[in-house]
Amino acid sequence: MEYVEARRERVEERLAEVVARVDPVELSDQLADAVLAGGKRVRPTLTLLVCEAMGGDPEDALDFGVGIELVHNASLVVDDIIDRSELRRGEPSAWAAAGYGPALVASDGLLGEAFALFDDPRAMSAVADAMVELGEGEAMELVDRPETEDEYMTLARRKTGALFRAAAELGAIAAGADETAVETVGEYAEHVGVAFQIRDDVLDATGDTAALGKPAGQDEVMERPSVVRVTDRPVAEVNDLADAESRQARAALESLDLVDGDARTYLEELAAFVVERER
């Protein structure tokens, strides 16, 4: 869809601008390697389109979207270190390319640049809450590993749903939405994020490295608590769990008073895309 691609390209342009201004140049280069080597840009695009669907100007949400993408990429750098994953988006991961120390410095740099973009108290609060959830999810995955379906769903909400929620909430905040609307669009996005994580687990178990752009089968190798391993369900039933999250996302979206148009259509389609994607 050209409409969505134009928003994604705007995010790419602003990402490049933010990274290029980082000093010293060595850190700027490390950040560029970590964040500009591709990616779907689902979260920042979500931020812009939520803003637009709520009657705002997507340009007003651009820095918020770029900020949440920087937070996301900072978390990926750490994830790859934890998982000892040598590939990210088909390229060497940050630690594999530069070593653990420089990779951690790059992650910190991404977070620093991100928080410089959240110049609104509500935005700062939304992102801080998401980072607490994300940290709890990482700890839960490493230490208190889920053994039941309910525990897994809590992990998925913290690990992936939280940043999706923040991305959508940032778009609503940029549009000047009230707290009820911010909360509701956050619920929509959280369900989208959980569905995304469930599908990610399925792809890890059933896909291949070339298609995914990152090592397949890592959940099994790392004994990571994926939904496939925790529930021991057949893949078809796991897909049903993702579909249920997608339906809840659409229900939350339908309860909002959104502007009819391409932005709203994309938000509806995103809830379907996350359970159908192949990488």
TrEMBL record:
Alphabetic keyword roster: Magnesium, Metal-binding, Transferase
Listed cofactors: Mg(2+)
GO biological process: isoprenoid biosynthetic process
Gene Ontology MF annotations: metal ion binding; prenyltransferase activity
Keyword Metal-binding annotated: yes
Family matches, as Pfam families: polyprenyl_synt
Protein name: Polyprenyl synthetase family protein
Organism from which the protein derives: Salarchaeum japonicum
